[in-house]
Each structure stands twice: as structure tokens, then as C-alpha cells.
UniProtKB/TrEMBL annotation:
EC class name: hydrolase
Gene3D superfamilies: 3.40.50.2300, Ribonuclease Z/Hydroxyacylglutathione hydrolase-like
Family: Belongs to the low molecular weight phosphotyrosine protein phosphatase family.
PANTHER family attached to this UniProt entry: LOW MOLECULAR WEIGHT PHOSPHOTYROSINE PROTEIN PHOSPHATASE, LOW MOLECULAR WEIGHT PROTEIN TYROSINE PHOSPHATASE
Name this protein carries in UniProt: protein-tyrosine-phosphatase
Listed EC numbers: 3.1.3.48
Keywords per UniProt: Hydrolase, Protein phosphatase
Domain Phosphotyrosine protein phosphatase I span(s) in chain numbering: 285-428
Length: 440
């Protein structure tokens, strides 16, 4: 059964909302989304401003297709979301007309691109700024910013230049990745949201484009692999069909998609089509934390997450059977107690095959843990597999060292590292629970 319901759409201004989320492609990376009682536009490029800017150059940015609608004809808009400052995502030819036609609409943009957003036509009192890892309530939809690498994870003192947005509301979770390539930790950041539909750029990248200042994106194969890694139910590839030097042939793309075995319902987006995602009821997120012996690192994370997410199922386990039935390490318990986290009710156990069906996430601490988890993972596993440390810093597969046999200071440092990762994981679980509450 297809996750995406489709119907012909004569014009995007006739997109009708419904239960769940309904969306239409505006070309390139742009979408109109009806979700949670809101009408949201993201990354709209509805002008010829790039053709004017690059006229007479090697890449003149001449449109392959005209805009699907004039920006002033998009009405009833509550929010315009911009993932980054490139003109085809934050367009000075689109923003002023769109905002003039929607006087109550506001704009969400990267904090690092505040000056550019104002320069492109956004009044300061209508601008809301965000950075990776932050969540903003749009008024019926929760938007959580995720990092993107176009083609690198570039930052300023104010934050990441490239973002994506997870949108949870109306019983559905959507993820628009922004322009990105794969990087360590990206999948882990998305796993807690249990994405229903991922909107991913599939125009790829190569040395010639990079040498001429045209940063690239995911290949089609990378996009499908990423959708499966995060557990997305469906994926639509976009960011093609606008400029002849930076596109994907949809016929070739469809042929390649047919050769890829994917757990997700995958396809390439088309104009003139309305896509609908119906809500699906889900239980609260369940998380299993794994380390070597289940007496130091994993019980620490277990205790922190149980305190932060009392409505969710949290547990921990060991790779080895050395400590089965034992309480956490005394130093681990003491450090946690000093920070207000009780571990005295926890007892070590070993990971089981059934855990891969019972939990949504199984998170390891280091290379040894990850290798063992993957070796144990059945082919029918439902759980997403990742690193807890990835939640600490985007772009880094941070290993959390085993403090066993080390001095007290090491236990303190490991607690701090685990706490940072768990706090962000808990935040994402709570943001994603907006969807779960509405699905009941």
C-alpha cells in the first residue's frame, strides 16, 4: 500500500488541506504544505532573479520551466521557511511579493542568515530565526531545525548556514532536508522523529560543478539509502528540472529508482500533483541504549532518559554477559546521584534478538558496540541503529569512552558527554510527540 496518495492538481493555489498533510511542488526545492491547520511555503523560487544575476556567464541560470505560480498569487500563507541563503531558496524575486500578498505571514530562517533575509525583503518584525537543534512552535506545527551540509557543514558564530526542517503536526511528520550531502550523525538526528515523508534533493554533485561554485546534493541512490536509514515511510526526490547544468533527468531517475530495493515508498516529485500523507497512530518512542557491560555508560543514559521522558519506554543492555543481574558501577551511581539522576533500580541485562523488534531506536556508544549491534541485528529488524554520541555534535560520530577502571574525573566527563547527547535526544522525542498526541 502506497504511503502517498496522489491526485491531479490544476494549480497550486487550489491545494486543499485535509487530515494529515497535503503538499505540492513549486519547482526546485520549493513546496507548498498544508499541515496542522497551517499553509507553509518552503524554499520557493518563483522568479527569474538568478537568470538576471548570471546573464552572460557560463551558467546563465535560464529556467527550463516557467514558475508554477506567481508569488503574489500564493495566498493564505502562514509561514515561509528558508533553509539557507542561496537565491533559489531565499529568493529576492519571490519574498517581497509573497509577503505583500500575505500580510500576516512570517519567515523562518537560519540565525546565521539574518542579514541576508532582511536584505532579501523580510521585515525584522516578521523574521523568526533558528539554528540546528532548536524547535519552534509555528502554531499547530512544530518545526525542528536539522543541520545540512551543502557540501560542508559551514557555520558562523551565529550558527549553521545550511539547515533542514522537521515539521510535526496534524498527525504527520515531514522532513525537508535542505540542500545536503550525507555526513556523520545526520541519520541519528532524524531517527527519533519517525519521519513519514522525507523531501530530499537528488540532483547529485560532481567536480565540474564544485569547481564552478555550484555546491552539490545527494545522489538519488544516497537519498534512498538515507530515507531507509532514518526509517522514513516515504521519500520524494526534488531539486531538478530548473537549470540544465544542475539537474536530474527524471526518466533516468525513474529507471534508477526501479533498480533500488527500498523499504520506503520512493519517487520523484511532479508538478501538477497533490501529495497527501494520512496520519498513522504510533506509540511513544522506545529507546534501548547499549554498551559493553551495561554497568557504566548505558545505565547512565538509561537513567537520564527515563527522567526526561517518563512517558516513553527506555531501557539499556550489554553486549557481553559479564554483569547480567548486577547493579550499575558504584562510581557511575555516585556521579549520577550527584547530578540528580537515580540508577539504583537498574539491573544489567544482555541485548536480545527480540529487542530489534520491540524498540524504535537502539543506540551504541563506540565502534565496538556498533559492530556488535550490527552483527546481532536480524534482517527483519524494525529498530533504527545509531550512535548516542551523534546527538552531541552534528558531523561527528562521537564515541563515548568506557570509564571502567578510570579515575572519578573520567566518570564525571563521561556523564557530561552522555547528558548532552541525551538532552538533545529527549528534546527531539518531545518535539516528535506532538504528532503522537494528535494521532490518538
Amino acid at each position: 500500500m502506497s504511503i502517498l496518495e496522489t491526485r491531479p492538481l490544476a494549480s497550486v493555489d487550489r491545494l486543499e488541506p485535509g487530515e494529515g498533510a497535503t503538499l505540492a511542488w513549486l519547482g526546485q526545492a520549493g513546496f507548498l504544505i498544508a499541515q496542522g491547520g497551517l499553509r507553509i511555503v518552503i524554499d520557493a523560487y518563483l522568479s527569474d532573479s538568478l537568470a538576471e544575476k548570471y546573464h552572460g556567464t557560463r551558467f546563465p541560470h535560464t529556467r527550463m520551466t516557467p514558475p508554477v505560480i506567481a508569488p503574489g498569487n500564493l495566498t493564505g500563507i502562514d509561514w515561509l521557511l528558508c533553509t539557507h541563503g542561496h537565491t533559489d531558496h531565499m529568493d529576492p524575486g519571490t519574498i517581497p511579493a509573497l509577503l505583500a500578498a500575505n500580510p500576516a505571514a512570517r519567515v523562518l530562517a537560519p540565525r546565521a542568515e539574518r542579514a541576508r533575509a532582511i536584505e532579501r525583503g523580510v521585515a525584522e518584525d516578521r523574521l523568526v530565526l533558528v539554528d540546528a537543534g532548536e524547535s519552534i512552535d509555528l502554531g499547530g506545527v512544530m518545526a525542528t531545525a536539522t543541520p545540512a551540509a551543502h557540501e560542508d557543514l559551514r557555520k558562523t558564530e551565529h550558527g549553521h548556514l545550511f539547515l533542514g526542517y522537521v515539521l510535526t503536526g496534524g498527525g504527520v511528520t515531514l522532513w525537508h532536508s535542505g540542500d545536503t550531502i550525507p555526513f556523520p550523525g545526520l541519520a541519528e538526528w532524524l531517527m527519533p522523529f519517525r519521519v513519514d515523508l522525507a523531501l530530499l534533493p537528488v540532483n547529485g554533485r560532481d567536480a565540474e560543478r564544485a569547481a564552478n561554485g555550484v555546491p552539490g546534493n545527494l545522489t538519488l541512490e544516497e537519498a534512498v539509502a538515507l530515507a531507509d536509514e532514518i526509517g522514513a515511510r516515504a521519500m520524494l526526490g526534488h531539486h531538478f528540472g530548473l537549470f540544465d547544468f544542475n539537474t536530474l533527468d527524471p526518466v533516468d531517475g525513474a529507471r534508477r529508482l526501479a533498480t533500488l530495493a527500498s523499504q520506503a515508498d520512493v519517487g520523484l516529485v511532479e508538478t501538477g500533483t497533490a501529495y497527501h500523507v494520512a496520519p498513522v497512530a504510533r506509540l511513544p518512542l522506545s529507546v534501548l541504549i547499549v554498551c559493553r557491560g551495561n554497568i557504566c555508560r548505558s545505565p547512565t543514559a538509561d537513567g537520564i532518559l527515563r527522567a526526561a521522558l517518563p512517558e516513553h519506554r527506555i531501557d539499556s543492555a550489554a553486549i557481553m554477559d559479564w554483569n547480567v543481574g548486577k547493579p550499575p558501577h558504584g562510581e557511575t551511581t555516585a556521579v549520577a546521584a550527584g547530578r540528580g539522576i537515580r540508577l539504583d533500580t537498574l539491573v544489567a541485562r544482555q541485548i536480545r534478538k527480540t529487542d530489534f523488534e520491540e524498540f524504535d531506536l537502539i543506540l551504541g556508544m563506540d565502534d565496538h558496540n556498533m559492530a556488535a549491534i550490527h552483527a546481532l541485528r536480524p534482517k527483519t529488524s524494525r529498530a533504527r541503529i545509531g550512535r548516542l554520541g551523534a546527538f552531541s555534535a552534528p558531523g561527528e560520530e562521537t564515541s563515548i569512552i568506557d570509564p571502567w577502571g578510570e579515575p572519578r574525573a573520567t566518570f564525571e566527563a563521561v556523564f557530561d558527554q552522555i547528558k548532552t547527547a541525551c538532552d538533545r535526544l529527549a528534546q527531539f522525542a518531545r518535539a516528535g510527540s506532538t504528532t503522537n498526541r494528535e494521532r490518538k
